[in-house]
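User: Can you help me understand a structure? I only have the sequence.
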Amino acid sequence: MHAKPVDQPRARGIVRLSAKYVEGRSWIDQLHQSGSLKVLFPRNQTSFLQAVTVNTAGGATGGDQFKIDALVRKNACLALTTQAAERIYMAEKSTTASIINSVRLEENAQLHWMPQETILFEKSNLSRSLIIDMHETSKCLLVEPLVFGRIASGERLKSAKIRDHIEIRKNGCIHFLDKLFLSNNITEHLSCPTIANGAHVMTLAVYIGSDASKLLSVVRSLLPETAGASLVQKDTLVLRALAFNSYEMRNFLIPVLRRFSGNLLPKPWMI
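Assistant: Let's start by predicting it. Here is the structure, written out as tokens:
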């Protein structure tokens, strides 16, 4: 008789967090964290509660499941980032790394969703979703940088998969929706001149606020030829950018994020 293969242990992590506004500052309201996902709260002198997530598993691979569920209460401000780049490792056949995130914003709340890069390794398989539910008076800044392969070591993604879903709702209706699906030889796909022209880094940034139109010309002046910004609604500015590596991307993205955030970048972005 042949012994059955033993299932490998999988990482699980859950964070439930709410932020409240008290006496001019934002504070932790409620916090639950379990498994391989933890949150740090570095001290800062701003009105934002800064939350830094730490994946103690060191990354994500097939079968891993991570979830963040956040609430930003009336008048509160929450900046959520990661301690470092998130690495998506090789997955066993037919297994997927799952990341499910959701944030709800109450009246006059502000959210800065600013994770650092997500790096896809060869043979990785990632399914990720983010749903942000906004009040009509709330504000939101979102950035999601994606890195396709370990560029410095010459890694090519010949067999990898990513399925990404970003949805922003306002008053219960879809305000912004972005879907990405890439599979198999992603490096070859991105090498096409009409797609990414050989770029290895792709970034999406979305700013939703009443001052979005005022920021458009300033943001465009900071962008290279491989990036562009548009006002898709009167309060919504969308930026898409390509770069050869993370260093090149950060050189122009950090000044842009400073403009969007009012110079309130989370500490991990400045290390």
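Now, to help you interpret it: The first strand starts at residue 12 and ends at 22. The two ends are 55 Å apart (CA to CA). Let me know which part you'd like to focus on.
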